[in-house]
Amino acid sequence: MSxxxxxxxxxxxxxxxVSYVLADLGxxxxxxxxSIFSKLNLSEPVPTHMTIQLVDISLKYPQGIIQNMLVKxxxxxxxxxxxILDMEEDEKVPLILGRPFLATTRALIDVGDGSLTLxxxxxxxxxxxxxxxxxMWKPST
Length: 141
What we know:
The chain has two helices and eleven strands. By secondary structure, it is mainly beta.
């Protein structure tokens, strides 16, 4: 397996939106496009004065933060804080889960083995992952 700087995994947002998300080790925040946010009929995001610098060095200003949104990955639920950003939606992977999510899930990524382990208390889920150019998640049975 090559360096998995990013990979995709399926997620469920409160039972109303199921999609693949991009888990990105280079992202310092979790991002949700405004178009997805508006489809979820959530309350207004909490205002923020944060500035996000993108890979192309341009600056973006989030429309706010949605705090503690429950995201289901396989059989686990995790609280995630999303920055809401007016950005183009990628239909295949519309959400970006960055290092804060990976820290919350206590994610262990074994590059040599091609596996991802998520942990809730003493309960662990080992899952196979592949690079970001193919099917990346093989849910547990």
